[in-house]
């Protein structure tokens, strides 16, 4: 009994290796027929991704605006401050200053469109600021404007908020100096020191604003984002071509697989591994020259070396292989399996942030799209390309999602297998003789002598 048990285990392992080798050969042979289509698809995807990212970069960039300043020429101290602000890096990025004379002129120039915004400072504004007198400035903004104007409006709102929050502290310090006169010969001079320190702190707010990242794709650039989209779409598109691994397995073939020890679990795992490795190999071969060229030209910044980035992409490819196995197992008996696969892919493309980032999608659509396999693969590919150190949680999530899809494929396969007519085991010949096994095994795996009896 022990010898027979070990023999069965050895035969099962041999059958599994033989079946995996047969499926791998089928994939390798089919890649030659799919090569032209895969190359064309990858070229179209890379070109489209670079074009969309460049278009979005240009459309989302903020061009400097013209801001008119009235009431500054009369006070040299305000003129010096505004010239310092206009010459700073933040001031140049936001807009250019144009000095005018009156408040009416400031209002009219905004109405006519000559200036995107106007600021009028009343006479004695600097002295009122030092003395603590509440003398408001007037800012004219159009009802609607370009992105630069809207950004300037946000900066002004932040500036006013900062002014309201901190002016009490500044004025209380000035009053403290005036009341105590501690080691200060001229309280007005001390007030000027506080006012200048406060003005510098307010203008430094622009520097804080410029250091923050305001992007619909997070901290990564648009080129890196859409390159991760290319990786996801490429693995998905290549996976469309592996339906031949499933469509040729009719009911008779499934019976043969079960007779020769290829269970539903083994079948799903072998197909997932073979498809995933094929997706990974093709993606690495096609994307490595593109990544090397973009990294050399400065178009993207890779988080690691090219070999390490290629190795990082393997778990994501295995997850997409599990997705292909699940989809083709679910649609194995359908005449429109490819069409169903394609429709599901289109839903994932639109809802998963592959065309537009999830920020631009309705909240319910974005919430559903973020948990779809294509969105998970896109996010994982983005981390694999740009992360200096790959988060272990990302790898575990991708592998867990792939394992879940393999389980769904196995459950579906077993449920369908129970519906198939059982193999006939009627007696033939003398009493107690069992029927012979099927005449041919899948892929030429012929049974050994006595194997059917076991």
UniProtKB/TrEMBL annotation:
Membrane topology, from the record: Multi-pass membrane protein
Cellular component terms per the entry's GO annotation: membrane
UniProt keywords, alphabetically: Membrane, Transmembrane, Transmembrane helix
Protein's UniProt keywords contain Membrane: yes
Subcellular location: Membrane
Domain ABC-2 type transporter transmembrane per the UniProt entry, residue ranges: 38-374
Transmembrane annotation, as ranges: 27-52, 225-247, 268-294, 300-318, 339-360, 395-412
Biased composition (Low complexity): 437-447
Single GO term (MF): ABC-type transporter activity
Residues covered by region (Disordered): 422-454
Keyword Translocase: no
Pfam families on file: ABC2_membrane_3
Regions of compositional bias (Basic residues) in chain numbering: 423-436
Protein name: ABC-2 family transporter protein
Species this chain originates from: Pseudoscardovia radai
Phylogenetic lineage: Bacteria, Bacillati, Actinomycetota, Actinomycetes, Bifidobacteriales
